[in-house]
Design goal:
single chain, 5-stranded antiparallel beta sheet, 32 strands, about 35% strand, globular, mainly beta, glycoprotein, Int_alpha_beta-p, Integrin_alpha_N
Length: about 475
Protein backbone atom coordinates (compact mmCIF):
# COMPACT_ATOMS: atom_id res chain seq x y z
CA UNK A 1 0.00 0.00 0.00
CA UNK A 2 1.38 3.38 -0.95
CA UNK A 3 0.65 6.04 1.64
CA UNK A 4 1.49 9.62 0.89
CA UNK A 5 2.08 12.41 3.41
CA UNK A 6 1.47 15.66 1.56
CA UNK A 7 2.30 19.12 2.83
CA UNK A 8 -1.15 19.96 4.12
CA UNK A 9 -1.97 22.16 7.06
CA UNK A 10 -5.09 21.42 9.06
CA UNK A 11 -6.88 24.28 10.79
CA UNK A 12 -9.40 22.99 13.32
CA UNK A 13 -12.21 25.20 14.51
CA UNK A 14 -13.69 25.26 17.98
CA UNK A 15 -17.27 24.01 17.89
CA UNK A 16 -19.95 26.43 18.95
CA UNK A 17 -22.94 25.23 20.99
CA UNK A 18 -26.07 24.35 19.10
CA UNK A 19 -29.10 26.53 19.67
CA UNK A 20 -31.55 23.65 19.61
CA UNK A 21 -33.45 21.58 22.10
CA UNK A 22 -32.53 17.93 22.41
CA UNK A 23 -33.92 15.65 19.70
CA UNK A 24 -36.86 13.40 20.41
CA UNK A 25 -36.11 9.90 21.58
CA UNK A 26 -37.31 8.30 18.34
CA UNK A 27 -35.79 10.04 15.33
CA UNK A 28 -37.08 9.25 11.85
CA UNK A 29 -34.97 6.79 9.83
CA UNK A 30 -32.54 8.73 7.65
CA UNK A 31 -33.69 9.05 4.05
CA UNK A 32 -31.60 7.86 1.12
CA UNK A 33 -29.76 10.66 -0.70
CA UNK A 34 -31.91 12.58 -3.19
CA UNK A 35 -35.21 11.20 -1.82
CA UNK A 36 -36.44 14.67 -0.94
CA UNK A 37 -40.07 13.77 -0.17
CA UNK A 38 -39.38 10.46 1.59
CA UNK A 39 -41.49 8.32 -0.76
CA UNK A 40 -38.79 5.69 -1.35
CA UNK A 41 -38.05 6.92 -4.86
CA UNK A 42 -34.93 8.89 -5.69
CA UNK A 43 -35.56 12.30 -7.23
CA UNK A 44 -33.43 13.84 -9.97
CA UNK A 45 -31.56 17.11 -9.36
CA UNK A 46 -30.29 18.87 -12.49
CA UNK A 47 -27.84 21.76 -12.39
CA UNK A 48 -27.84 24.48 -15.04
CA UNK A 49 -25.09 26.85 -13.86
CA UNK A 50 -25.21 28.84 -17.11
CA UNK A 51 -28.91 29.70 -16.75
CA UNK A 52 -30.07 33.30 -16.98
CA UNK A 53 -32.18 34.34 -13.98
CA UNK A 54 -34.01 37.66 -13.84
CA UNK A 55 -31.88 38.91 -16.73
CA UNK A 56 -28.64 37.96 -14.93
CA UNK A 57 -26.52 35.83 -17.27
CA UNK A 58 -24.98 32.68 -15.82
CA UNK A 59 -26.63 33.21 -12.46
CA UNK A 60 -27.55 29.53 -12.48
CA UNK A 61 -30.54 27.36 -11.62
CA UNK A 62 -31.40 23.84 -10.43
CA UNK A 63 -34.43 21.79 -11.46
CA UNK A 64 -35.57 18.95 -9.20
CA UNK A 65 -37.80 16.42 -10.92
CA UNK A 66 -39.49 14.01 -8.52
CA UNK A 67 -39.47 10.25 -8.99
CA UNK A 68 -42.59 8.22 -9.73
CA UNK A 69 -43.57 4.67 -10.64
CA UNK A 70 -42.77 5.63 -14.23
CA UNK A 71 -39.47 7.38 -13.50
CA UNK A 72 -38.68 11.11 -13.20
CA UNK A 73 -41.91 13.02 -13.77
CA UNK A 74 -41.23 16.51 -15.13
CA UNK A 75 -44.75 17.68 -14.24
CA UNK A 76 -43.86 17.31 -10.54
CA UNK A 77 -40.85 19.50 -10.04
CA UNK A 78 -39.25 22.27 -8.03
CA UNK A 79 -37.31 25.12 -9.62
CA UNK A 80 -34.55 26.61 -7.47
CA UNK A 81 -32.55 29.79 -8.04
CA UNK A 82 -31.07 32.35 -5.69
CA UNK A 83 -34.18 34.42 -6.36
CA UNK A 84 -36.46 31.64 -5.07
CA UNK A 85 -38.40 32.71 -1.97
CA UNK A 86 -36.52 32.02 1.28
CA UNK A 87 -33.31 31.24 -0.60
CA UNK A 88 -30.19 32.95 0.82
CA UNK A 89 -28.62 35.59 -1.39
CA UNK A 90 -29.81 36.82 -4.77
CA UNK A 91 -29.22 35.78 -8.36
CA UNK A 92 -26.29 37.69 -9.83
CA UNK A 93 -24.40 37.39 -13.09
CA UNK A 94 -21.76 34.63 -13.12
CA UNK A 95 -22.75 33.13 -9.74
CA UNK A 96 -23.01 29.66 -11.42
CA UNK A 97 -25.57 28.36 -8.90
CA UNK A 98 -25.92 24.62 -9.53
CA UNK A 99 -22.31 23.89 -10.53
CA UNK A 100 -22.13 21.05 -7.98
CA UNK A 101 -24.75 18.96 -6.20
CA UNK A 102 -24.80 16.57 -3.25
CA UNK A 103 -27.46 15.12 -0.98
CA UNK A 104 -27.93 13.54 2.44
CA UNK A 105 -30.49 13.61 5.23
CA UNK A 106 -28.49 16.19 7.14
CA UNK A 107 -30.97 16.69 10.00
CA UNK A 108 -32.19 13.05 10.07
CA UNK A 109 -35.87 13.92 9.72
CA UNK A 110 -36.59 11.20 7.14
CA UNK A 111 -36.23 13.50 4.12
CA UNK A 112 -33.06 13.96 2.09
CA UNK A 113 -31.72 17.50 1.76
CA UNK A 114 -30.01 19.07 -1.26
CA UNK A 115 -26.64 20.84 -1.26
CA UNK A 116 -26.01 23.26 -4.13
CA UNK A 117 -22.63 24.77 -4.94
CA UNK A 118 -22.41 28.37 -6.19
CA UNK A 119 -18.68 28.87 -6.78
CA UNK A 120 -19.04 32.24 -8.54
CA UNK A 121 -20.80 33.97 -5.64
CA UNK A 122 -19.06 37.16 -4.51
CA UNK A 123 -18.61 37.47 -0.75
CA UNK A 124 -15.70 39.02 1.09
CA UNK A 125 -13.96 38.97 -2.28
CA UNK A 126 -14.71 38.08 -5.90
CA UNK A 127 -15.72 34.44 -6.55
CA UNK A 128 -15.72 33.65 -2.85
CA UNK A 129 -18.32 30.95 -3.42
CA UNK A 130 -21.11 29.61 -1.26
CA UNK A 131 -23.10 26.43 -0.65
CA UNK A 132 -26.86 26.40 -0.10
CA UNK A 133 -28.79 23.72 1.78
CA UNK A 134 -32.40 23.20 0.64
CA UNK A 135 -34.42 21.11 3.09
CA UNK A 136 -36.49 18.07 2.20
CA UNK A 137 -40.04 17.57 3.46
CA UNK A 138 -43.13 15.46 2.82
CA UNK A 139 -44.08 17.86 0.02
CA UNK A 140 -40.56 18.08 -1.42
CA UNK A 141 -37.88 20.72 -1.12
CA UNK A 142 -38.73 23.78 0.93
CA UNK A 143 -36.75 26.33 2.94
CA UNK A 144 -33.02 26.89 2.84
CA UNK A 145 -29.92 28.15 4.62
CA UNK A 146 -26.28 28.67 3.73
CA UNK A 147 -23.72 26.05 4.70
CA UNK A 148 -21.17 27.32 7.18
CA UNK A 149 -18.11 28.85 5.56
CA UNK A 150 -15.05 29.13 7.80
CA UNK A 151 -12.21 30.41 5.64
CA UNK A 152 -13.71 32.99 3.29
CA UNK A 153 -10.48 34.96 3.06
CA UNK A 154 -8.40 31.83 2.38
CA UNK A 155 -10.15 30.30 -0.60
CA UNK A 156 -12.11 31.03 -3.74
CA UNK A 157 -14.88 29.16 -5.52
CA UNK A 158 -16.11 27.44 -2.36
CA UNK A 159 -18.67 24.87 -3.49
CA UNK A 160 -17.05 23.89 -6.79
CA UNK A 161 -17.27 20.27 -5.58
CA UNK A 162 -19.35 18.62 -2.84
CA UNK A 163 -19.81 15.36 -0.94
CA UNK A 164 -21.86 14.44 2.13
CA UNK A 165 -21.48 11.62 4.66
CA UNK A 166 -20.31 10.78 8.18
CA UNK A 167 -16.71 11.43 7.29
CA UNK A 168 -15.41 11.93 10.86
CA UNK A 169 -17.25 8.80 12.08
CA UNK A 170 -19.11 10.44 14.98
CA UNK A 171 -22.65 9.52 13.92
CA UNK A 172 -23.53 12.86 12.30
CA UNK A 173 -23.54 13.71 8.60
CA UNK A 174 -20.75 16.06 7.52
CA UNK A 175 -20.15 17.97 4.29
CA UNK A 176 -16.88 18.11 2.35
CA UNK A 177 -16.49 21.19 0.16
CA UNK A 178 -13.90 21.73 -2.56
CA UNK A 179 -12.48 25.15 -3.38
CA UNK A 180 -9.49 26.80 -5.02
CA UNK A 181 -6.88 29.09 -3.50
CA UNK A 182 -4.81 28.39 -0.37
CA UNK A 183 -7.56 26.25 1.23
CA UNK A 184 -8.60 23.49 -1.19
CA UNK A 185 -10.88 21.39 1.04
CA UNK A 186 -13.21 22.22 3.94
CA UNK A 187 -14.94 19.73 6.22
CA UNK A 188 -18.10 21.10 7.84
CA UNK A 189 -18.92 18.90 10.82
CA UNK A 190 -22.42 17.70 11.62
CA UNK A 191 -25.00 17.83 12.98
CA UNK A 192 -26.18 20.41 10.44
CA UNK A 193 -29.68 21.63 11.23
CA UNK A 194 -32.16 24.23 10.00
CA UNK A 195 -31.47 26.78 12.73
CA UNK A 196 -28.46 25.64 14.76
CA UNK A 197 -25.07 27.31 14.95
CA UNK A 198 -22.11 25.56 13.38
CA UNK A 199 -20.58 22.53 15.03
CA UNK A 200 -16.98 23.06 14.00
CA UNK A 201 -14.95 21.99 11.03
CA UNK A 202 -11.55 22.10 9.43
CA UNK A 203 -9.78 23.16 6.28
CA UNK A 204 -6.67 22.01 4.48
CA UNK A 205 -4.19 23.24 1.94
CA UNK A 206 -1.99 21.13 -0.33
CA UNK A 207 1.25 22.69 -1.57
CA UNK A 208 1.74 19.97 -4.21
CA UNK A 209 -1.65 20.59 -5.86
CA UNK A 210 -2.56 23.48 -8.11
CA UNK A 211 -4.26 26.13 -5.97
CA UNK A 212 -5.81 27.55 -9.13
CA UNK A 213 -7.79 24.35 -9.71
CA UNK A 214 -8.12 23.21 -6.07
CA UNK A 215 -10.32 20.18 -5.37
CA UNK A 216 -12.25 19.76 -8.59
CA UNK A 217 -14.39 16.70 -7.80
CA UNK A 218 -15.38 14.66 -4.72
CA UNK A 219 -16.94 11.23 -4.27
CA UNK A 220 -17.22 8.94 -1.26
CA UNK A 221 -18.13 5.46 -0.07
CA UNK A 222 -17.32 2.71 2.44
CA UNK A 223 -14.13 1.51 0.77
CA UNK A 224 -12.74 -0.20 3.90
CA UNK A 225 -16.00 -1.89 4.94
CA UNK A 226 -15.90 -0.45 8.47
CA UNK A 227 -19.17 1.48 8.17
CA UNK A 228 -17.86 4.99 7.61
CA UNK A 229 -17.10 6.51 4.20
CA UNK A 230 -13.73 7.55 2.85
CA UNK A 231 -13.45 10.43 0.41
CA UNK A 232 -11.94 10.48 -3.07
CA UNK A 233 -10.31 13.84 -3.86
CA UNK A 234 -9.55 15.04 -7.38
CA UNK A 235 -7.21 17.92 -8.16
CA UNK A 236 -4.39 18.98 -10.47
CA UNK A 237 -0.68 18.75 -9.89
CA UNK A 238 1.07 22.05 -9.31
CA UNK A 239 3.11 23.19 -12.28
CA UNK A 240 1.80 20.65 -14.82
CA UNK A 241 -1.97 20.73 -14.29
CA UNK A 242 -2.08 16.94 -14.67
CA UNK A 243 -4.84 15.05 -12.89
CA UNK A 244 -4.13 13.78 -9.39
CA UNK A 245 -6.47 11.60 -7.32
CA UNK A 246 -6.20 10.36 -3.73
CA UNK A 247 -8.26 8.49 -1.13
CA UNK A 248 -8.56 10.21 2.26
CA UNK A 249 -9.86 9.25 5.71
CA UNK A 250 -11.29 12.46 7.17
CA UNK A 251 -11.72 10.86 10.61
CA UNK A 252 -7.99 11.29 11.16
CA UNK A 253 -7.09 14.73 12.49
CA UNK A 254 -4.20 15.09 10.06
CA UNK A 255 -5.84 12.90 7.46
CA UNK A 256 -3.14 13.71 4.94
CA UNK A 257 -0.89 11.21 6.72
CA UNK A 258 -3.26 8.53 5.41
CA UNK A 259 -3.62 9.67 1.79
CA UNK A 260 -3.50 6.83 -0.69
CA UNK A 261 -2.67 7.53 -4.31
CA UNK A 262 -5.27 6.41 -6.84
CA UNK A 263 -5.08 6.28 -10.63
CA UNK A 264 -5.26 9.87 -11.81
CA UNK A 265 -8.55 11.11 -13.21
CA UNK A 266 -11.09 13.90 -13.13
CA UNK A 267 -14.27 12.17 -11.88
CA UNK A 268 -15.10 9.09 -9.82
CA UNK A 269 -17.87 7.01 -8.30
CA UNK A 270 -17.79 4.59 -5.36
CA UNK A 271 -19.90 1.42 -4.74
CA UNK A 272 -19.45 -2.31 -4.16
CA UNK A 273 -19.04 -3.98 -7.57
CA UNK A 274 -18.28 -7.53 -6.36
CA UNK A 275 -20.46 -7.58 -3.21
CA UNK A 276 -17.55 -8.39 -0.90
CA UNK A 277 -18.43 -5.67 1.63
CA UNK A 278 -15.81 -3.21 0.39
CA UNK A 279 -16.81 -0.38 -1.92
CA UNK A 280 -14.81 -0.05 -5.12
CA UNK A 281 -13.73 3.09 -6.97
CA UNK A 282 -14.22 3.86 -10.66
CA UNK A 283 -11.99 6.75 -11.82
CA UNK A 284 -12.63 8.44 -15.16
CA UNK A 285 -9.88 10.15 -17.12
CA UNK A 286 -11.23 11.43 -20.44
CA UNK A 287 -7.99 13.13 -21.56
CA UNK A 288 -5.61 12.12 -24.33
CA UNK A 289 -2.01 11.39 -23.31
CA UNK A 290 -1.00 14.61 -25.04
CA UNK A 291 -3.09 16.51 -22.48
CA UNK A 292 -2.47 14.29 -19.45
CA UNK A 293 0.17 11.54 -19.15
CA UNK A 294 -2.31 9.41 -17.16
CA UNK A 295 -4.88 9.60 -19.97
CA UNK A 296 -5.35 7.32 -22.97
CA UNK A 297 -6.38 7.48 -26.59
CA UNK A 298 -10.09 8.32 -26.44
CA UNK A 299 -10.09 8.28 -22.62
CA UNK A 300 -10.24 5.53 -20.02
CA UNK A 301 -11.79 4.36 -16.76
CA UNK A 302 -9.80 2.58 -14.04
CA UNK A 303 -11.54 0.44 -11.42
CA UNK A 304 -9.72 0.11 -8.09
CA UNK A 305 -11.09 -2.54 -5.74
CA UNK A 306 -11.55 -1.74 -2.07
CA UNK A 307 -10.30 -3.65 0.98
CA UNK A 308 -9.86 -3.30 4.75
CA UNK A 309 -6.86 -1.02 4.30
CA UNK A 310 -8.37 1.12 1.57
CA UNK A 311 -7.41 0.17 -1.97
CA UNK A 312 -6.83 -3.58 -2.28
CA UNK A 313 -3.23 -3.81 -3.46
CA UNK A 314 -3.54 -7.58 -3.98
CA UNK A 315 -5.81 -6.99 -6.98
CA UNK A 316 -4.62 -5.21 -10.06
CA UNK A 317 -6.78 -2.24 -11.11
CA UNK A 318 -9.01 -2.88 -14.11
CA UNK A 319 -8.31 -0.45 -16.95
CA UNK A 320 -11.12 0.02 -19.46
CA UNK A 321 -11.07 1.76 -22.83
CA UNK A 322 -13.25 1.38 -25.89
CA UNK A 323 -10.55 -0.98 -27.22
CA UNK A 324 -11.05 -3.34 -24.24
CA UNK A 325 -12.53 -6.65 -25.38
CA UNK A 326 -16.30 -6.60 -24.90
CA UNK A 327 -16.61 -2.80 -24.62
CA UNK A 328 -18.68 -1.39 -27.50
CA UNK A 329 -17.00 0.96 -29.96
CA UNK A 330 -13.33 1.77 -30.55
CA UNK A 331 -10.92 4.22 -28.97
CA UNK A 332 -10.67 7.35 -31.10
CA UNK A 333 -9.12 10.70 -30.39
CA UNK A 334 -11.55 13.04 -28.66
CA UNK A 335 -14.10 10.40 -27.58
CA UNK A 336 -13.70 11.45 -23.92
CA UNK A 337 -14.60 7.97 -22.67
CA UNK A 338 -14.75 8.35 -18.86
CA UNK A 339 -15.95 11.96 -18.94
CA UNK A 340 -18.85 10.83 -16.72
CA UNK A 341 -18.96 7.75 -14.45
CA UNK A 342 -21.50 6.36 -12.00
CA UNK A 343 -21.88 3.09 -10.10
CA UNK A 344 -25.29 1.64 -9.21
CA UNK A 345 -27.18 -1.65 -9.26
CA UNK A 346 -29.08 -1.55 -12.56
CA UNK A 347 -30.44 -5.10 -12.65
CA UNK A 348 -31.14 -5.63 -8.95
CA UNK A 349 -28.67 -8.49 -8.43
CA UNK A 350 -26.81 -6.78 -5.59
CA UNK A 351 -23.68 -6.00 -7.61
CA UNK A 352 -22.96 -2.39 -8.55
CA UNK A 353 -22.85 -1.77 -12.29
CA UNK A 354 -20.98 1.00 -14.07
CA UNK A 355 -22.25 3.66 -16.49
CA UNK A 356 -19.56 5.45 -18.49
CA UNK A 357 -20.16 8.59 -20.52
CA UNK A 358 -18.18 9.33 -23.67
CA UNK A 359 -19.45 12.82 -24.48
CA UNK A 360 -16.90 13.35 -27.25
CA UNK A 361 -17.94 10.29 -29.26
CA UNK A 362 -18.78 10.94 -32.94
CA UNK A 363 -17.89 14.64 -33.09
CA UNK A 364 -19.18 15.19 -29.54
CA UNK A 365 -22.64 13.73 -30.24
CA UNK A 366 -21.88 11.46 -27.29
CA UNK A 367 -22.57 7.93 -26.05
CA UNK A 368 -23.02 5.97 -22.80
CA UNK A 369 -21.81 2.44 -22.02
CA UNK A 370 -23.11 0.22 -19.20
CA UNK A 371 -21.00 -2.63 -17.80
CA UNK A 372 -22.04 -5.09 -15.11
CA UNK A 373 -20.75 -6.12 -11.70
CA UNK A 374 -20.24 -9.72 -10.61
CA UNK A 375 -18.66 -11.77 -7.82
CA UNK A 376 -15.34 -11.58 -9.67
CA UNK A 377 -15.58 -7.84 -10.29
CA UNK A 378 -16.64 -5.73 -13.23
CA UNK A 379 -17.18 -7.65 -16.46
CA UNK A 380 -17.57 -6.55 -20.05
CA UNK A 381 -19.88 -9.48 -20.78
CA UNK A 382 -23.29 -8.21 -21.87
CA UNK A 383 -22.19 -4.56 -21.93
CA UNK A 384 -24.48 -2.19 -23.81
CA UNK A 385 -24.16 1.24 -25.39
CA UNK A 386 -26.72 4.01 -25.85
CA UNK A 387 -26.87 7.15 -27.96
CA UNK A 388 -29.66 9.44 -29.11
CA UNK A 389 -29.82 7.25 -32.21
CA UNK A 390 -30.63 4.14 -30.15
CA UNK A 391 -34.14 2.93 -30.97
CA UNK A 392 -36.56 4.27 -28.35
CA UNK A 393 -34.27 7.04 -27.08
CA UNK A 394 -35.87 10.44 -27.83
CA UNK A 395 -34.09 12.86 -30.15
CA UNK A 396 -31.24 12.34 -32.57
CA UNK A 397 -27.47 12.42 -32.20
CA UNK A 398 -26.03 15.74 -33.33
CA UNK A 399 -22.53 17.12 -33.26
CA UNK A 400 -21.82 18.96 -30.03
CA UNK A 401 -24.69 17.52 -27.95
CA UNK A 402 -22.23 15.87 -25.50
CA UNK A 403 -24.66 13.08 -24.55
CA UNK A 404 -23.05 11.35 -21.55
CA UNK A 405 -21.30 14.40 -20.08
CA UNK A 406 -22.93 13.34 -16.81
CA UNK A 407 -24.50 9.98 -15.96
CA UNK A 408 -26.27 8.76 -12.85
CA UNK A 409 -27.59 5.36 -11.77
CA UNK A 410 -30.30 5.69 -9.14
CA UNK A 411 -33.74 4.22 -8.42
CA UNK A 412 -36.37 6.72 -9.55
CA UNK A 413 -39.24 4.20 -9.60
CA UNK A 414 -38.89 2.43 -6.26
CA UNK A 415 -38.34 -1.03 -7.78
CA UNK A 416 -34.88 -1.38 -6.19
CA UNK A 417 -33.13 -1.20 -9.55
CA UNK A 418 -31.08 1.83 -10.55
CA UNK A 419 -32.39 3.71 -13.59
CA UNK A 420 -29.98 5.35 -16.02
CA UNK A 421 -30.18 9.12 -16.37
CA UNK A 422 -27.95 10.93 -18.84
CA UNK A 423 -27.35 14.60 -19.57
CA UNK A 424 -26.24 16.35 -22.75
CA UNK A 425 -25.41 19.94 -21.77
CA UNK A 426 -24.65 20.86 -25.39
CA UNK A 427 -28.06 19.85 -26.75
CA UNK A 428 -29.78 22.58 -28.79
CA UNK A 429 -26.78 24.90 -28.88
CA UNK A 430 -26.12 24.79 -25.16
CA UNK A 431 -29.66 24.58 -23.82
CA UNK A 432 -28.95 21.06 -22.59
CA UNK A 433 -31.30 18.15 -21.90
CA UNK A 434 -31.67 15.05 -19.72
CA UNK A 435 -32.78 11.51 -20.58
CA UNK A 436 -33.95 8.77 -18.23
CA UNK A 437 -34.04 5.07 -19.15
CA UNK A 438 -35.92 2.57 -16.98
CA UNK A 439 -34.03 -0.35 -15.49
CA UNK A 440 -34.99 -3.99 -15.96
CA UNK A 441 -33.60 -7.32 -14.77
CA UNK A 442 -31.40 -7.33 -17.89
CA UNK A 443 -30.30 -3.69 -17.83
CA UNK A 444 -31.56 -0.28 -18.97
CA UNK A 445 -34.26 -0.25 -21.63
CA UNK A 446 -34.89 2.54 -24.11
CA UNK A 447 -38.55 1.51 -24.27
CA UNK A 448 -40.56 4.17 -22.49
CA UNK A 449 -37.53 6.40 -21.94
CA UNK A 450 -38.18 10.08 -21.38
CA UNK A 451 -36.36 13.30 -22.12
CA UNK A 452 -36.84 16.92 -21.13
CA UNK A 453 -34.94 20.19 -21.30
CA UNK A 454 -34.72 23.43 -19.35
CA UNK A 455 -37.91 24.97 -20.73
CA UNK A 456 -39.97 21.99 -19.55
CA UNK A 457 -38.83 22.51 -15.97
CA UNK A 458 -39.03 26.29 -15.84
CA UNK A 459 -35.47 27.33 -16.70
CA UNK A 460 -34.85 30.08 -19.25
CA UNK A 461 -33.12 29.05 -22.47
CA UNK A 462 -31.53 32.50 -22.87
CA UNK A 463 -27.79 32.21 -23.42
CA UNK A 464 -26.50 28.68 -22.83
CA UNK A 465 -27.90 27.31 -19.53
CA UNK A 466 -25.99 24.01 -19.86
CA UNK A 467 -28.88 22.01 -18.39
CA UNK A 468 -27.40 18.82 -16.95
CA UNK A 469 -23.92 20.17 -16.25
CA UNK A 470 -24.46 18.62 -12.83
CA UNK A 471 -26.64 15.62 -11.89
CA UNK A 472 -27.17 13.49 -8.78
CA UNK A 473 -23.72 12.42 -7.66
Amino acid sequence: MRLRSAALLIAALTPLPLLLTAPTAQAAPAAAPYDFNGDGRTDLAIGAPGATVGGKAKAGAVSVVYGSADGPKSSTRTLLTQDTAAMPGAAEADDAFGSALASADLNTDGYADLLIGTPGEDGSDTNDGTVTIVWGSESGLSGARSLFSFFSTDYDRYGKSLAAGDFDNDGDVDVAVGSSGPIVLSLVAGPITKTGAHNGGSGSRNSSWSSTHGVTHLSSGDVTGDGHPRVVLHGRAGGTGDATTVLADLEIGNYTDWLQDLPAGYVSSVADIDKDGYADIAVGNDRETSADPAGALGGKVTVVYGGPGGRDTSRAPLVLTQDTAGVPGASEQGDRFGGGVCLGDVNGDGYADLAIGAPGENSAAGAVTVLYGSASGLTTKGSTSYTQNTAGVPGASENGDRFGERVTLTDHTGDRRADLSVSAPGENSGDGAVWSLRSTATGPTATGSTSFGPGTTGISTAGAPGYGTALNS
